[in-house]
Amino acid sequence: AGEPLHDKVEGNIVARQGFPGPLMPSPFTFQQYGQSGIEVSELFPHLARHVDELAFLRSVYGQSNDHVQATYEMQTGQIQVGFPSVGAWVTYGLGSESANLPAYVVMNDYRGGPLGGPNDWSAGFMPASYQGTLFRAGSDPIVDLRPPTGMSSEQQRARLNTLAKLNEVDLAKHPGNSELAARISSYELAYRMQGCAPDAIDISSESEATQKLYGIDQEITAPFGRQCLMARRLVERGVRFVQLFHGGMGNQNTDTWDAHSNLEENHR
């Protein structure tokens, strides 16, 4: 059952789906922590110890409670497709610190990507070269990172040179095609990544103590912890922006934060 809104809340709450109704209060208790006195839910006892080191944005609000549009707005500031994601803007404004790794990397949940798909890390109306590069979940995040069996580096280089010439001919016929230009650039980047990417995504060199800090020793936290550790290694090697999406399109009632029922048991 819901309860009336607090007296300080002004205006009306409009339900975009279904009939307007009272809001349900949180079933969890909150307590103040740190010198800032920030209230934190009982669900986050460890996070609560670090509230004075966190930034809280209290002015943020959304224009839609629909899954896809809300995700677009969180990533691009707009509820419509066609606008650059935050990672694309950062890459556009600050550039890349590494010539051998993508400037903008995206990692999805092992259960699937976010609602909205690639539009969530799109370059929008900017050149396609600023869009995110997707790393897969699991032990093999980069597809076809190693050259085909039996192909030498010289053969691969000659093959890429021939492909580049053909693509440049096509690009000359279609000037201003940023997607084609980005594809040409991505082939060269993929070739350079063969030398440094394997080390960047290999977390086996991290100590057991470090891996434990990231929760890799526990089954329930290992997938996301592995990605967090990989993200740190990528940033250390010059990747400008890493976006991790947690909460894939599994069973929404049991697998993700987007619980549609049984809220208390789901979140505990």
What does the average pLDDT come to? 81
Low-confidence stretches: 12-16
Backbone structural class: mainly alpha
Give the strand tally: 5
Which overall shape is indicated by the principal axes computed on the Cα atoms? globular
β-sheet strand percentage:
5-15%
Please report the distance between the alpha carbons of the first and last residues.
20 Å
| Main sheet: strands, sense, barrel | 3 strands, parallel
Rg, rounded, reads 22 Å
Helix/strand order: EEHHEEHHHHEH
Give, in spatial order, the strands making up the sheet with the most strands.
4-3-5
Residue share in helices? 25-40%
Task: Walk me through the structure.
It is a single chain. With 268 residues, the protein is mainly α. The chain has 7 helices and 5 strands, in the order ββααββααααβα. The protein folds into 2 domains: 1-60, no CATH class; 61-267, no CATH class. The chain has a 3-stranded parallel beta sheet with strand order 4-3-5. A two-stranded antiparallel sheet has the order 1-2. Strand 1 (30-33) and strand 2 form a beta hairpin. Helix 3 runs antiparallel to helix 4. The two termini are 20 Å apart.
Short description:
This protein has 268 residues and is mainly alpha-helical.
Spell out the blueprint of helices and strands:
Blueprint (H helix, E strand, L loop, with lengths): L29 E4 L4 E4 L25 H10 L9 H9 L9 E4 L25 E3 L17 H21 L4 H24 L6 H6 L8 H15 L4 E4 L18 H5 L1
Parallel strand pairs: 3-4, 3-5
Antiparallel strand pairs: 1-2
Helix pairs in contact: 3-4
